[in-house]
Specification:
Elements: E1 6-10, E2 13-21, E3 25-29, H1 40-46, E4 51-55, H2 74-88, E5 94-99, H3 102-112, E6 117-123, H4 137-153, H5 160-168, H6 179-189, H7 193-203, H8 205-218, E7 225-230, H9 237-253, E8 256-260, H10 267-270, H11 272-288
Parallel strand pairs: 3-4, 3-5, 5-6, 6-7, 7-8
Antiparallel strand pairs: 1-2, 2-4
Helix pairs in contact: 1-11, 2-3, 3-8, 4-7, 5-6
Length: 289
């Protein structure tokens, strides 16, 4: 089944790119394990005023995976973003909206390409207090591929991947997927590329975090930034710690800080109206004044 958007050859890989709407450009970077459709409901609320650009990182969605032995890196993702914007003819600066782990990529891009970034929004972003890499990256990469191979050969139910995604994004999007959308989701989550990409990126997290620590020493963040933290309704130790850490993250970036409560990590999926409002309030100020 043909997914929305187009396919572009980026860094030698067939890459799935989706562009909607019109107006100033807004680039969305999905979370660890995220795909273009996680932002569908938010994009629908913004596309009459913004050009919404989304792409699937290697192995996610319908993008070709990294070759065996290759590791995700901030430098590679900065280059990939450059090539995608160039291919689309995006000349002016973009607002980068990043969810979860993608905040590492967004910060790296903003620091590396200040002229191309109008602002950065971190939606429950990943801020590491102690960026340690305990296992050599190549070992982690081999382990990820071996584990993914085992997973894809297990006699799991056909819908196992789809069910895992629904649990992760619970309580889910406010509207049910139509038949075509559900077929695309099932094809991705029950395929062989997705678990491999997820494990490779997860196990590369320490490397990515260490790279970013080095980049922070040499490249200033000049773009205005917003950090949005999703916390539960109840005042638990986890909520207190997460709120403290996200405030520290905002201070580290010199960013505005907004606490969203009650909310869960995937509020991008199941609270699209709130997400769209936060994005638009910030982008209106940094782009349109």
């Amino acid at each position: 089944m043909q997914p929305p958007g187009t396919f572009q050859v980026i860094a030698g890989l067939r890459t799935h790119v989706v562009v909607d709407g019109h107006g100033p450009p807004l680039l969305y970077l999905a979370a660890l394990g995220g795909n273009w459709f996680d932002f569908d409901h938010v994009a629908a609320l913004l596309e009459d005023r913004w050009t919404i650009i989304r792409y699937d990182r290697p192995g996610y969605g319908f993008s070709e995976p990294l070759r065996v032995g290759e590791l995700p890196s901030l430098a590679a993702e900065v280059s990939r973003t450059d090539q995608i914007l160039d291919t689309l003819g995006i000349v002016g600066p973009v607002v980068v909206v990043a969810h979860s782990l993608a905040s590492l990529y967004a910060e790296a891009y903003a620091r590396s390409r200040p002229a191309r970034v109008a602002g950065v929004i971190m939606l429950d972003g990943s801020y590491v207090l102690l960026p340690w890499q305990l296992v050599p990256p190549r070992w982690s990469n081999r382990f990820a591929h071996a584990t993914a191979t085992v997973i894809t050969k297990l006699p799991l139910p056909r819908a196992a991947g789809t069910l895992a995604h629904r649990i992760a994004t619970s309580p889910g999007a406010p509207e049910e997927l139509n038949e075509k959308q559900q077929a695309l989701v099932d094809e991705i989550f029950n395929g062989k590329n997705y678990p491999r990409a997820l494990l490779v990126e997860q196990l590369a997290f320490g490397v990515l975090s260490s790279e970013l620590t080095g980049l922070r020493r040499t490249h200033d963040l000049t773009a205005p930034a917003l950090v949005v933290s999703a916390v539960s309704r109840h005042r638990t130790p986890v909520r207190i710690f997460w709120n403290w850490k996200q405030r520290r993250y905002a201070a580290r970036l010199g960013a505005e800080y907004r606490m969203l409560s009650p909310a869960r990590h995937y509020f991008v999926v199941h609270q699209p109206e709130v997400t769209a409002r936060l994005i638009e309030e910030f982008t209106d100020r940094v782009v349109r004044g």
